[in-house]
């Protein structure tokens, strides 16, 4: 990247709220994959005379996001008409919020390489989604199933200092809305979309640039990253040639992140906002807001930090555990009442590596595993107390997932417990030495030879030997050779 310039970036995030019905009518909101125009009524089609009635659950969920992102709540809030015409918005206006959004002046905290960062949120408001146009060679088809789906818009301040911040913010925000149950934020279904506002200035300049480029409808975090990189190069080239990039809206050509000019903007858009006359203003009492606050769960950022400070987990490990609330809750259940942080670390390690491997291989969800978090932690505890080796623990885990039996029962049934008898282990090692006499001779020159012998001991005992103990005995016996 060109070192002469730095970017100024603000994000607008659109988020579909998870509700049964649409924002202002009773049409079902499960529109994805349904027959076009099968989820419509006079309200969401915008027919004359139809009366919108706000969805109380959507308002509540939006308020919970405002509170979770430290926004000030406008206790008197209202809906406004944003006037513009577009084929997928035939009524000529979108019901949105203008000067009294539900929340303002908040912030979201997240980490970049274990370093805590904060980006300010200018506003969060609620609006309705539009319909969808589908273009063929000859005609444009319109589907209004998406029209009227509740949509939250989150607008940040232009605080981002580097691309890592933008991406980490986008991820943490997505996790946060999932933890709160506000939205599934399934990007492939278009439930979360980003709009990038970006311009460049000379490094060190404090002034906001004289232009701004908007890129709309970015459907994934990886594409967002590509768009930022592409726009940086494009705008830097124009600035380096002494010109100013055009103030415009740009569209995405494809998933490569390349953009093209869609609409030149001479002035700010004039949407002629005015209060929606069909919906009275909303009033929120302190009691109501307190009630919502009490339902907010511990959020991903706070959880991650608790894992790092209380359980001494590595930040990267903690980050993986909070990827989803289901996983994080599963982990919490597994470590319930365990105080020993070394054991907690071991449980986290086995969850991320070995349980995940089972889930991936068998295409399961965590909730579909045959064993419970408690049974899982019992298994790791046996390993931790050296009653099992890693190899044996893996066998037991696989058996737990096919039978749902207690780990201890499986160990007893299959006679899998680790060899506790040192004399017996020494016997095995001596046999291995005899069978691999040439390798034993090699150990003085080649340190890997001892590792090979350890492997043979593990193999001969079918994983029942304790690796650390065996390594110690092997070294001991080799010194006497
Ligand atoms: Zn409807």
UniProtKB/TrEMBL annotation:
Keyword annotations of the record = ATP-binding, Ligase, Nucleotide-binding, Protein biosynthesis, Transferase
Coiled coil (residue ranges): none
Give start and end of each Asn/Gln amidotransferase domain: 329-478
Which top class of enzyme applies to this chain? Answer: ligase
Q: What is its EC number?
A: 6.3.5.-
The record lists the catalysed reaction(s) as: L-aspartyl-tRNA(Asn) + L-glutamine + ATP + H2O = L-asparaginyl-tRNA(Asn) + L-glutamate + ADP + phosphate + 2 H(+); L-glutamyl-tRNA(Gln) + L-glutamine + ATP + H2O = L-glutaminyl-tRNA(Gln) + L-glutamate + ADP + phosphate + H(+)
Q: Which GO terms describe its molecular function?
A: asparaginyl-tRNA synthase (glutamine-hydrolyzing) activity; ATP binding; glutaminyl-tRNA synthase (glutamine-hydrolyzing) activity; transferase activity
Give the record's GO biological process terms.
glutaminyl-tRNAGln biosynthesis via transamidation; translation
Name the source's superkingdom.
Bacteria
Q: What does this protein do?
A: Allows the formation of correctly charged Asn-tRNA(Asn) or Gln-tRNA(Gln) through the transamidation of misacylated Asp-tRNA(Asn) or Glu-tRNA(Gln) in organisms which lack either or both of asparaginyl-tRNA or glutaminyl-tRNA synthetases. The reaction takes place in the presence of glutamine and ATP through an activated phospho-Asp-tRNA(Asn) or phospho-Glu-tRNA(Gln).
Entry-linked HAMAP family: GatB
Q: Which family does the similarity line name?
A: Belongs to the GatB/GatE family. GatB subfamily.
Report quaternary structure and partners: Heterotrimer of A, B and C subunits.
Name-wise, this protein is: Aspartyl/glutamyl-tRNA(Asn/Gln) amidotransferase subunit B
What's the source species for this entry?
A: candidate division WS6 bacterium OLB21
